[in-house]
Amino acid sequence: MSDPMTDGTATTASDPMHAAASDELAIDIIEGRWPAGQAITLETIQDRFSVSRTVAREVAKYLESMQAVTIRRRVGLVARPIGEWAALNTQVIRWKLMSSHRKEQLRSLTELRLAIEPAAAAAAARYASMETKAMFPVLAAELRKTGESGDLDSFHDLDIRFHSMLLRSSGNELFSSLSDIIATVLKGRVELGMYPQKPKPAALDAHDAVAEGIWQGNPDKAREAMRIIVGEVADSLDLT
């Protein structure tokens, strides 16, 4: 006999009802309202969110895929300690940024950026193709133009593109795999209102320096400039 808790396959949280329920339950665990080790049933999800059993089952499978819960036959969904979750999954990062623990998450992510992005910038200066290297000064110029003019939507889109391209141009598949995580962090700062109304001149200068270092094939220059960029983020968020 099939298990009603686990029939079907895990889905992405694309349905609005599914996404809302998944978000709320995950944040309940993060905030301690649903303690680790405690179980809830599909019926609880159905009643709380006024959803069908099919949607409740999809929510259960989605939370399980994020390692946020364990599904146990005849028990239900058992909350797992946050330390056991898929910490580098962009959805898990988003949940933590939506919670009251956002500062701790931003600190962890900024420390990750400090460890990875300067090295990735140096690697891009060494290994990126000339065609790719030539794109960095162009992007940096657009960043400055949109930042100084106050076109923040375009600036943020370009900033995500700049940092993602840097990681993907490093020649290191592990650095490249972090590009979506860095994009999630950058988007999260904007959505949470934790980005300055206007980019600081020093940050624009540092992006120019990273671009120049990569274009010139100067790993040390690219590395140091990227360290300044991420260090400024840590300072602005009062994470140091």
Question: What does this 3D model show about the protein?
Answer:
This is Putative HTH-type transcriptional regulator. Pfam families: FCD, GntR. There is one protein chain. A hairpin with a 3-residue loop joins β2 and β3. By secondary structure, the protein is mainly α. The chain folds into 2 domains: 69 residues, Arc Repressor Mutant, subunit A; 136 residues, GntR ligand-binding domain-like (Four Helix Bundle (Hemerythrin (Met), subunit A)). Helices cover 67% and strands 4% of the residues. The chain starts with 15 loop residues before the first helix and ends with a helix.
- Spans of at least 5 consecutive residues whose pLDDT stays below 50 are 1-12
Q: What radius of gyration results from the CA coordinates?
A: 21 Å
Question: How would a crystallographer describe the biggest sheet?
Answer: 3 strands, antiparallel
CATH superfamily of the largest domain: GntR ligand-binding domain-like
pLDDT averaged residue by residue: 91
* CATH architecture level-2 label of the largest domain: Up-down Bundle
Amount of helix = 55-70%
- Count of DSSP strands: 3
